[in-house]
Write a structure and sequence with these properties.
The protein is mainly α. It contains 22 helices and no strands. The protein is globular, with a radius of gyration of 22 Å. It is a multi-pass membrane protein.
């Protein structure tokens, strides 16, 4: 894919086209560096998901509290700070902004290893969100400046592969390190690579504004205020429909992420243990349930998600050249298909079949990245792109990341409490349960998370409507 991006960036532009700011080789380097940074971004964000059961046990937390840690605590500052940082990125050096942000979130990820209670861990997760707010809006803006318009969706899809790849590495690394050294060490290992990427961003990533042919006009246009950008986008229904649809997709994806591993630990306990022992013997090391689930979810869903992200961008660019409405068809259909596939995955008796179905779901669940982010940048003029990206991410992450994990965690606890109603137990009183009471609590916990996952995936119907509705206005709304 980078060859496609680089080749496109290196071609001699047609009359009136945007000139590529740097060489083919350097453009390729930038794409890989930004991908690496985004991988670290999601690794640090998602490593919590494989560690949830251990953290819950040691710090005595509920699913609702874990949903708060994995979602709202992170998302509030991540989304709110994204907008002023994007405004800064419209005028200042985006490489420095990105590099500084990487250093901040990596440091707070490492600090999570020192948490002694819920409130400390909550504070450190807020810090991770503060740092990560300065990553994607400036990165999207940079990518659009580096590549030609006809490769935009593919380039942004390439960058978006950091989501599944980072999740893959977070699950695998977190599971294996936690098995061997504990969950606290997993946070330390997750935070360390970011310091290297921070230095690479600051010292090797070039700000292209001065080299762009449109530089003089862009400087003048950069006086557009935040309110002017919002007023401009208010007349672009496509932007709001894709924002709504993508927010719902993120609500489902982020909501499922912290509890998918927990679903297997609670509902396929014995089979997961047998599979871990089998693969551990085959690979020649002591593989426990946590490490096996991390490997299985990371490899199967991570690879499938990466392929899906890339495929979505390629499909959008290929068919969108003839009809821009094609950008919305693929994510719309994929939103429908994921619903029955996921429901079957969490209701079958076989853990192996469930893993395979979740891999299919991961492929379909990332097809929207390139089309949505590419369209989001295409409905805005150059001097509004970073702010537009921040607004899009604000909506997606406040609803998806902020509410998804919290909602799924709360529904999981509520469902478990309903199941336990006749026993006189609750999720809170289950902490000290023994014997038959402990078994009842375990069964209710497993069913609770199952129903929370099922109910949340039904929101895919809303995402389908948003994408399909955006198809009707996209040709009129794209300007750049």
């Amino acid at each position: 894919m980078t060859d496609a991006v680089s080749d496109g960036a290196a071609r001699e532009p047609a009359a009136g086209a945007e000139a590529p700011p740097f060489s083919k080789g350097y453009t390729s380097y930038v794409m890989w560096l930004l991908l690496g940074i985004y991988i670290i971004n999601f690794l640090d964000r998602q490593v919590l998901n494989i560690l949830i059961e251990d953290i819950k046990l040691e710090l005595h937390l509920t699913d609702t509290q874990m949903g708060l840690l994995g979602g709202l605590a992170f998302a509030i500052f991540y989304t709110i700070l994204g907008i002023p940082i994007a405004r800064l990125a419209e005028r200042k050096n985006r490489a420095v902004i990105i590099g500084s942000s990487v250093a901040v979130w990596s440091g707070f990820t490492a600090l999570c290893a020192t948490a002694g209670n819920f409130w400390q861990l909550l504070l450190y997760r807020v810090g991770v969100g503060v740092g990560e707010a300065g990553c994607t809006p400036p990165a999207h803006s940079l990518i659009v400046d580096y590549v030609p318009k006809e490769k935009r969706a593919s380039a942004l899809a390439f960058y978006s592969m950091g989501t599944p790849i980072g999740g893959l590495l977070g699950l695998i690394m977190g599971g294996l390190v936690a098995d061997a050294y504990g969950w606290r060490t997993a946070f330390l290992v997750a935070g360390a690579p970011g310091l290297i990427f921070a230095l690479l961003a600051v010292f090797t990533l070039k700000e292209p504004r001065a080299r762009l042919a449109r530089h003089a006009a862009q400087v003048q246009a950069a006086s557009a205020t935040f309110s002017e950008t919002v007023r401009y986008l208010a007349a672009k229904p496509t932007f709001w429909f894709i924002a709504m649809a993508a927010a719902v997709k993120a609500f489902i994806g982020y909501g499922h992420a912290p509890f998918t591993a927990s679903f297997f630990f609670r509902n396929h306990t014995e089979e997961v243990g047998r599979l871990a022992a089998f693969w551990g013997d085959l690979l020649g090391f002591d593989l426990q349930s946590r490490g096996f689930v991390g490997l299985a979810l990371g490899i199967m869903s991570g690879i499938a998600g990466t392929v899906g992200a890339m495929a979505g961008g390629v499909i959008a660019d290929r068919f969108g050249k003839n009809d821009l409405r094609a950008y919305m068809v693929t994510p719309a259909i994929a939103s429908l298909l994921t619903i029955p596939i996921f429901i079957i995955a969490v209701t079958v008796d076989s853990a192996v079949l469930a893993f395979c179905l979740l891999a299919m779901n991961a492929f379909l669940g990332t097809l929207w990245y390139g089309p949505v982010y590419g369209t989001g940048q295409s409905v805005a003029p150059p001097h509004m792109r970073a702010t537009t990206a921040a607004l899009l991410l604000f909506i997606i992450n406040l609803i998806g990341l902020g509410l998804g994990p919290l909602a799924v965690g709360a529904v999981s606890d509520l469902s478990a409490n309903m199941i336990l109603a006749d026993t006189g137990l609750t999720v809170q009183t289950c902490r000290g349960a023994v014997g038959e009471a402990k078994a009842a609590c375990a069964a209710a916990s497993g069913e609770g998370v199952r129903w929370a996952l099922i109910l949340s995936t039904l929101f895919g119907l809303v995402a389908f409507f948003g994408f399909w509705r955006a198809r009707k206005t996209i040709r009129e709304d794209v300007v750049s």
